Amino acid sequence: AKGKSWAKKGDWKAKHNASLTAKGPGKMANKKGAGKTGQAGAGKHGFVAKGGKTGGKMGGKMGGKMGGKMGKNSTKDFVEEMITKFLEMPAPWKNEAVSANRPLVFMHQHRAGGTTLRKLLYNETMHLVCATGPRLTWIHGVNCRAFKNNVSDAAVYGGEFCWSGKHVSCVTNFREPISRITSCYAQRLVAKRKVAPYCMAKLEPQKLKTLLVNYGCVNEPFRRLGQCGVQTGADATDKRKRMQIWNNTLQNLASCVPILVDHQETFSAAVKHFPQFKQAFWHMKKEKFNLNSYPK
């Protein structure tokens, strides 16, 4: 947003120091359409830009500097340096005319209002199709564990998959970490999968960690934005591997416009970047999210 940022750097540390990726929104809406992402990344890393300012130049700097510092004898995780470089990246480019050649991809992160947003985007897409003719098509219902998408002629995509090969726009959803973890535990582990007890405190720490990681309750951004796969390696004991995943996630996130569903002011950036879908994003303000209560 011109002349403003969603969150100052100091404010983020106070509000979101529990979440590595939540810092993204602070800078990405801070510049008016600066830079381009270039072509979406090749291979399995869906949103690494190749050839635009974001991916080519900054990605090379980050990779080089981090690679040089991450020697076996180093004991430090260079999280602060990675975040600083991330915040220096240009904002994603605006897409005022979403089309099959310049599609909009909603990277759906679970337990963060994503299902509601997918429905709203779908409804808005159908409205645009009726108003402008069949130039916009939609894909939804992609299996969240497949991480694949074989459809190439749609203009709006919503799901949980990796991406390559097109000049895409991206929007993704975040939620305050503790609320999302609690919601994920109650809905996914207790109610749906039935692999965890009603009371989280009954689990041994290592068992709790394994469940939260295996079912995406604590590492969802790394699964969607870091690499293609359910097991991300974001908590790997090998420092080089661990920081590479973190770095990949931040580089890919730089191509996306993030929405913090707990902070309605962040919806304005999505509206500015994708004005065709402003009604869908503004409607999110009216939605109430679950209270993370356990099933009775």
Describe this structure in words.
This protein is of the alpha/beta class and 296 residues long. It has a domain at 37-175 and 219-286. Helix content is 40%, strand content 8%. The chain is built from 11 helices and 7 strands. The chain has helices spanning 9-16, 25-28, 53-69, 79-87, 114-132, 177-192, 205-214, 220-226, 239-253, 267-273, 278-283, and strands at residues 38-39, 50-51, 104-107, 138-139, 156-159, 169-174, 256-260. The strands form 2 sheets. The protein has a 5-stranded parallel β-sheet. It has a two-stranded antiparallel sheet with strand order 1-2. α3 runs antiparallel to α9. The longest helix is centred in the middle third of the chain and has 19 residues, at 114-132. The chain is globular and about 50 Å long. It starts with 8 loop residues before the first helix and ends in a 13-residue tail after the last helix.
The biggest beta sheet is recorded as: 5 strands, parallel
Evaluate the radius of gyration: 19 Å
What structural category do the secondary elements indicate?
alpha/beta
Number of DSSP helical runs: 11
Topology pattern, helix = H, strand = E: HHEEHHEHEEEHHHHEHH
For the biggest β-sheet, the strand order reads 4-5-3-6-7
Taking pLDDT < 50 over at least 5 consecutive residues as the criterion, the unreliable ranges are 1-62, 140-146
The amount of helix comes to 25-40%
What is the averaged pLDDT score? 69
